[in-house]
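Notebook, student rotation project (T.W.).
Task set for the rotation: take a protein with a known small-molecule partner, predict the structure of the complex, and write up what can be learned from the model alone. Partner molecule chosen: flavin mononucleotide. Sequence and SMILES entered below by T.W., checked by me.
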Amino acid sequence: MTAARLAEDDARRKRGGPVRRHYNRASFFSTTRSTPPMRIGPHLLVNSLFAAPMAGVTDRPFRQLCRQLGAGYAVSEMVTSKRELWNSLKTSRRADHEGEPGPIAVQIAGTSAQEMAEAAAYNIDRGAQIIDINMGCPAKKVCNKWAGSALMQDETLAISIARAVVAASAPRGVPVTLKMRTGWCQAHRNAVTLARAFEQEGIAMLTVHGRTREQGYKGQAEYDTIAAVKAAVAVPVVANGDIDSPEKAREVLARTGADALMIGRAAQGRPWIFREIGHFLATGEHLAPPLVAEVRRLLLAHLEDHYALYGEFTGVRSARKHIGWYVTGLPGGEAFRRQMNTLEDSAAQWQAVADYFDALAAHADRLPERAAAPASLAAIEEPHDAEDA
Ligand SMILES: Cc1cc2nc3c(=O)[nH]c(=O)nc-3n(C[C@H](O)[C@H](O)[C@H](O)COP(=O)(O)O)c2cc1C
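Predicted structure of the complex:
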């Protein structure tokens, strides 16, 4: 990306004209083949670093950014199995896969085997190439209705959901994957029992977040149960939880023997973590922090995509959290975040971000090295829930 092109885009933006996306195909492919490719059913993924589904975060613009920056796969935010909500604005935004590199993976959440099977079929009709069942989310609204990780407490229901969703998807050539926790609580870590049963029902890949439902996001993720799941089944197993640096990624791979890693909160405001991890796993060396000019370009393009998906009113407000994550730990970042939160139109917000990064670029070429975990990692107690279940 030349400075001239950046300046030209800024000028277009000020005129209110469209700004081009800056996906560079050559660098996309050179950075994504960093870990061995892996398969989910018929789909060959370019590597085994996955972006976690995060409701309210991993929308289509953010997923595309993660893919561009080294994630081999990205699962959508959960969508509800409740038919009456399928046409709502929120669910239809979550079902937006325009221009997304495949395979398109849609995560569904719900409590009834029949409704979940219908939701799978509905999403396959709308382009889903992989269906992921959510048995990992601890959000109260979901759990009170026995969805998300609460399902792990009712093994019979959990297994019947897996069976019904596979029955609806397999005949159409669509693999079904499932994301769960290590168990319901410390005393009931039933991930291994359930993993064996899910494999029997035809689940093609299992992701395990190394916490119990009871833990929410507190404490540390543990990896022994993930290792036990990996040892118990033949389908690919994905390790998830607290992976926030290249070294941690290497450690989790070694401790679990997992086939892939899934990263959530550490990618917030730092989507280039995938290429950093990929490069480290492939070479044992660290990449330099990204250039300020690159982050400026990525974030401004991210905002363009974000406004286009959510519209002016919602877009400006929901972009604030992303911008806040990007500037966490950067010089003047906290003051900028507070000031930016007062802006209420997209042009002003976009320009403030451009100006902030211009000022940063005047002092340094690259982002400073940051502590491994962004401030938000430990702070998140309860994620958004599906609209929903
Ligand atoms: C804001 C937020 C929203 C989330 N939404 C979902 C979701 O929709 N579906 C799901 O399976 N997990 C969801 N999760 C859990 C993540 O996918 C992941 O399992 C968890 O954050 C642990 O990984 P990490 O330590 O890399 O963040 C969410 C997490 C957060 C922080």
